[in-house]
Every structure is written in C-alpha cells, then in structure tokens.
Design brief:
- By secondary structure, the chain is α+β, with helices and mostly antiparallel strands.
- The chain is built from four helices and nine strands.
Length: 166
C-alpha cells in the first residue's frame, strides 16, 4: 500500500500538471465498484466541466478540489497510481478510470488489484472524510505539543525483554 509520503508525492506531482485544468469528461470507467459515492450516473453528470482548483492530500486520499464546492477524492489503496498522459495515450487494462482534460491530456487512475476507491464529495461529504482522520502530520498545526497530547495516557509496555537462545 502506498504510504503517506508516496501519496503526498502523487498529489504534488498531479497538482503541478493539472492545476487550473477543466475535466472535459470521463473517457473510461470500466470498474464501477471503485466509485463509492455518488452513483456512477451522477458522477458522469456532475464531473464534466468542473475546473481543478487545487490538488492536496488528506490522510491517504488524493483530493482534487473542484469548482462548485465539489471534491474528487481518490484512494490509491494497494496498487493504485494517478498518471497524467498525453491525448494519444491508450489506457491499458489496469487503467480503470480515465478523466479527459480540456487541453487533451488525460488522468489515468491505474489500479492492478482494483482496490482503489473514488468519491465525489460535496462540502458535507468532505467534512465527514476529514472527521474520520486524526491530525494531519505534515501540517503546520501538527506540533510537538499535539504529539505529546496524543501520546499522553497511552500504555507503554516497559516489561518487554528479548530472550536469545544460545
């Protein structure tokens, strides 16, 4: 599973390439189970025409902040990746979601194991996503005081020992 630093790199790389672009449409969606919310029909209806205002990360979710207060949340899970490809690139069998951009390029969500998930969230859904995760460790708000407070009261097993048989 991609760890938080890898997901952060994916988000930063994607942001550098697609910020300000508009999603022209969904060019491919062949694994509908990856879409958790809304319905696939609603996704096809709402997503086209949305401009990408920001690409960030929350926990292990890549978040594309779109206009009209929508957020496209993508969880890469174990084998997922997001790639920006040229207009003539042909999706392989592992690219289950392809978003066409207004400049002709495409965003491929490639996921060999089909564990990745996609959510199109309104502000309430985004707040719910934020509420289930703890403090963001790469934010300025995550200070040593916050870490101390989180660790306070946790039991530590000081009776551990290591036995070596010789």
């Amino acid at each position: 599973m991609p760890e938080l630093p890898e997901v952060e790199i994916v988000a930063r790389s994607l942001a550098a390439q697609v910020l300000g672009r508009t999603i022209a449409g969904i060019a491919k969606l062949d694994w509908e189970r990856m879409v958790e919310t809304p319905s696939v029909a609603d996704l096809h209806c709402i997503l086209p025409g949305r401009q990408i205002h920001a690409v960030t990360r929350r926990a292990k979710w890549v978040l594309l902040s779109l206009d009209a207060e929508w957020t496209l949340a993508i969880h890469l899970r174990m084998s997922g990746n997001l790639l920006v490809m040229p207009s003539d690139a042909i999706p392989d069998v592992y690219s289950h979601l392809v978003l066409a951009l207004d400049d002709g390029r495409q965003i491929f969500f490639s996921d060999q194991r089909k564990f990745g998930r996609v959510r199109l969230l309104d502000p309430i859904g985004l707040a719910a996503l934020h509420s289930v995760h703890g403090p963001e460790p790469l934010s300025d708000a995550f200070t040593s005081e916050v870490l101390i407070r989180l660790l306070a009261g946790r039991a530590q097993n000081s009776n551990r020992c290591c036995l070596i048989n010789m």
